[in-house]
Write a structure and sequence with these properties.
The chain is an alpha/beta fold. It is built from 17 helices and 15 strands. The chain folds into two domains: 14-201 and 377-417, D-Maltodextrin-Binding Protein, domain 2, CATH 3.40.190.10; 204-373 and 447-492, D-Maltodextrin-Binding Protein, domain 2.
């Protein structure tokens, strides 16, 4: 069923989202608009792809008549992720609505079902799943949650998706990088992939202000990124001395002065840390995650991050209520660089007058083989309660929705994205390919184990050293992850 696809360069800079705050600092639970939302997702090599010629994979799936069953799906409304399934119920001319609607109709017709979606905030969604399993209810076939579903997995509330009939997780419409990060001893309870066209947009990246670069005779970093020499050292060196007290009041103030880089505490610490190849956990040969604190490596990476964020007087937001100012600082011409995610580019930079370019998060050094893009726990993770009304039917429809997206949504979205106003140059499109090629799902972070936020909290507190803090957290971190692993292994024997 797998078909060859060829990689294309594409800019993912278009998702309209509501006032969202990264998960580690708390999320806005306000409803968000779905107008003008366009998005895409990853498959076999975590890259947006162009379909090769051939028969659709959805048409190759087994045909079954489910007798008019209504497929109830509940989705996390954070960052407008409900658009992964929910539509206006007809074609409206909105690209995302129409291609999702067409996919839904194809699945409905093939299996004689009716797809109905509703949305709520992620905490309500997870609580609802838990209560329904406890009460023996089967109100929903699929749940589109996020990393906060982790306790439901370790608590035994979720179905092992590798055992779900008709689901083949080796297929290219399931994100293999996510599977690697989310599995324990081959057991997987949460997945993502083409079924959630919004999830790829949580990938981290940098943007830079071309006007400021040109005004100061600075060379665009595209060549560095293309030839694999875009490193954290290069970023630190390039930004040194750029923060400028324009009004001479000996203070650095938003809207009055010029900053080297703008970012905020719930994004950039993780993006830079994972982008530089640092890790808190690793898998053994049995697919068991373990805490791995390479204090020397972590300390070296943190030292560079401290220089970039603290010593060089960057605009670093630590107040969740002000997180948007990280992006307004950049969009108003107040910073040379900005750390951001793909999903936030359109929301916060759509009206930016200055030209900007997109870059991957820098490597640690040139010996690092690939650029690494951090994926926060905010991305959609699809789960199934452990008491499905009909496991065979649920698995078949889940696979069909993913395969149908692989067939039509991903390539259709590329065609639209490639023509948006946000594709400001060919180089940025190439950079996006680098960004989405290698996405990181750290089991330690996804499960929000004790100490997962240590880099974040140290930077926010302007602490210059991290080694002693790591040592204090290690015992609790090991205990937390071991407890999760033990729960997964116990599920295997039940």
């Amino acid at each position: 069923m797998k078909r060859e696809r060829k990689t294309i360069f594409v800019l993912i800079a278009l998702l309209t989202v509501g006032n969202a705050v990264m998960l580690s600092c708390g999320e806005s639970k306000q409803e968000t608009k779905t107008d003008d939302i366009q998005s895409t997702d990853t498959a076999e090599i975590s890259a947006v792809t162009e379909e090769a010629e051939g028969v659709s994979v959805l048409s190759q799936l087994p045909e079954t008549d489910y007798g008019g069953h209504t497929v109830h799906i509940i989705l996390n409304n954070q960052d407008s992720r409900q658009v992964d399934i929910m539509t206006a119920g007809e074609e409206t001319g909105d690209v995302m609505n129409d291609i999702v609607y067409a996919r839904n109709r194809a699945v409905e017709e093939k299996y004689n079902v009716k797809i109905e979606g509703e949305s709520t905030d992620y905490t309500t969604l997870n609580d609802l799943l838990k209560k329904e399993v406890q009460g023996g209810l089967t109100d929903y076939d699929l749940y589109f949650s996020n990393c906060y579903a982790g306790p439901l997995a370790s608590g035994g509330y979720l179905y092992s998706l590798g055992d779900l009939p008709n689901v083949d997780l080796s297929n290219p419409w399931w994100d293999q990088a996510a599977l690697d990060g989310l599995s324990v001893s081959g057991r997987v309870y949460m997945v993502t992939g083409d079924i959630s066209p919004t999830s790829l947009l949580t990938s981290s990246c940098l943007v830079f202000n071309k006007n400021l670069f040109s005004a100061h005779d600075m060379e665009y970093p595209y060549a560095l990124a293309s030839n694999g020499t875009w490193t954290l050292d290069k970023l630190v060196g390039m930004t040194k001395g750029l923060t400028t007290d324009l009004n001479g009041d000996s203070k650095y103030v938003l809207g009055e002065d010029l900053f080297s880089i703008s970012s905020w505490m719930c994004d950039s610490p993780f993006s830079l840390f994972y982008g530089a190849g640092a890790r808190f956990s690793e898998k053994d040969q049995d697919d068991i995650p373990h805490i791995r604190l390479d204090v020397d490596k972590i300390s070296s990476v943190y030292e560079k991050m401290y220089q970039l964020i603290v010593e060089q007087d960057s605009y670093f937001v630590t107040d969740p209520n002000l997180y948007e100012t990280s992006y307004s600082c950049f969009s108003n011409g107040g910073s040379y660089f900005c750390e951001i995610t793909l999903q936030k580019i359109d929301l916060f930079l759509r009206d930016m007058e200055d030209d900007y370019g997109i870059l991957p998060i820098p490597k640690w050094d040139e010996a690092q083989e690939e650029y690494m893009s951090f994926v926060s726990g905010a991305g959609s993770l699809i789960v199934v309660p452990n008491n499905p009304e009909d496991a065979e039917r649920t698995g078949m429809l889940m696979e069909a929705l993913a395969a149908g997206a692989y067939d039509t949504i991903t390539p259709s979205v590329y065609e639209t994205i490639s023509k948006t106003k946000n594709v400001r140059d060919e180089e940025s499109a190439e950079m996006v390919n680098l960004i989405i090629r290698n996405r990181i799902f750290d089991p330690f972070f996804i499960n929000l184990c004790n100490g997962y936020s240590i880099v974040q909290t140290q930077l926010a507190s302007k602490k210059q050293e991290i080694a002693s803090a790591l040592q204090k957290q290690e015992k609790g971190a090991v205990k937390a992850l071991d407890k999760i692993v033990e729960a997964y292994l116990n599920h295997e024997t039940t």
